[in-house]
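Retro notes - structure team

What went well: the batch runner handled both jobs without manual restarts.
What didn't: labels got mixed up in the shared folder, which is why I'm recording both outputs here explicitly, each with its sequence directly above its tokens.

Job 1
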Amino acid sequence: MLENTSATVVLKKGRAKSIKNYHPWVYSGAIDRVEGDYQPGDIVRVVSYDGNFQAKGFINPKSQLFVRVLTFTDEPIDATFFEQRLHAALKQRQRLLPARTNAFRVVNSDADRLSGLIVDYYNGIVVLQINSLGMDRLRDVVVAAVRRILEPSGILERSESPSRKDEGLTSRKEVVWGTVPDRHVIEENGVQFWVDLQEGQKTGFFLDQRENRQRIGQLASRHKRLLNLFSYSGGFSVYAALAGIPTISVDISEPALALARENFKLNGLDPNRHQFVVANVFDFLRQTEERYDFAVLDPPAFIKKKRHVAQGTRGYKDINLSTLKKMEPGGVLLSCSCSHYLDWSLFQKVLFAAAQDAGRQVQIIGRFGQPHDHPVSIFHPEGEYLKAFLLQVLEPME
């Protein structure tokens, strides 16, 4: 058993509604008391004020998330529990995984009832990200479960998220089992990519944009060229180039664009027929005088904390405004946000303000969220972060 059976978290009177609705986070303000001895990160029982069982989860009094729920059932939590959760998550992905795809997210934290754990699979290599104290303490159990269920040739931990600080943890990056190369080839929808496992963004690649990359590839042949802003390793550009149109990839990172060139070569494309611009995207848009009929805008998260919402929304407005001004009449723009705190409604208001200031008529022709391997629990809307609007940018306002 991995539980602390001598400690119990007691909720305040009338504060069990959220947990009865299967929300996996119990905030410190809902806690009446903790009975018994415990260590931060222990798995403990949670009961209502009148003593009725509610859940079991990781306790961490140093975090605003006092308890991260693992189960709402009074069941034993042991090594088998974690293997079963991992196996169930894998089977769910395998049922829906597109053909010729060997890179995907296996565990998406609370949505898969494994709070604080990310497991990404890259063609035989697993990259872990651990973001909660309780899961960090069970690292060996997690690694053993991953080895048994996924049978990888190597496991890399990249627990570098800023959220670890809120849990009292420091960053960690190391190979925890087997052999992990610096770079590794994956396939998605029949398209191949080099992934920088050790130094790349997130866990190496933006797996969550798989479906949007495919959409851009499907739309590309109807356009003259693609402007890919914040292009990273060129994922959207490769799909568009495979459809036969020239591309311009803009990113501030020279190593990222070097990897993008390699990704073009990997797919039989000549990178010399495409443009790779090392630049700050804001500066690029201010300086270019060209107009574009097809563009992708996929910036980093401008809002990482709730207190950053006002400043971050200004950043999203400014970058969308600058991009809209550069679009030809009839052009199509995929505008993305990976900020949890920028919800659908607020994002649409940002785009409204940007279109208004740009003096352009804009139509929403598509809305796209996270793919199936990045699920969102209906009981935990906080797990939704990726939003993308497909926009048609029409002529200037009269």
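Job 2
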Amino acid sequence: MQETLTRLPHFVGNHVLLVATFVVIILALIALEISRKFTGYRELTPGALVQMINRGSPLVVDLSAIADFEKGHIMGSKQVSPSQFDPENKDLAKAKDLQVVTVCRNGTESGKAAKRLVKAGFTNVATLAGGIGAWQRADLPLAKGKR
């Protein structure tokens, strides 16, 4: 151990670019974890969402376009277009203390919607990481049609 510590400055001096890249990666990972901690919502894997659905009845809000929703969606999810999504809506406001999971095709719109829900005072918000694409890659079933 002592020998390793004495050789460390020599290694750093000879491999400045490698060490700098390592430090940048570590700092980026720390920043990502800190930002994830303060978003107010969590990201779920498809398996974690299945467990949540099996244990209770979360409100799954699908923000896909209606045509995409009809091609395939998570059974029991409610379709809302992103332009119509309003956390202050009286029907949605009733779910402030329920588990709410936002879903979209690839995870982009659902993250924006989750932020809006948290800002509106929802306490138990999550998103499906990777969206319906991740759900399909996990070989989980999709319902077709309007419901």
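One thing worth noting from job 2: The chain has two domains: 2-37, 42-137.
We'll revisit the folder naming next retro.
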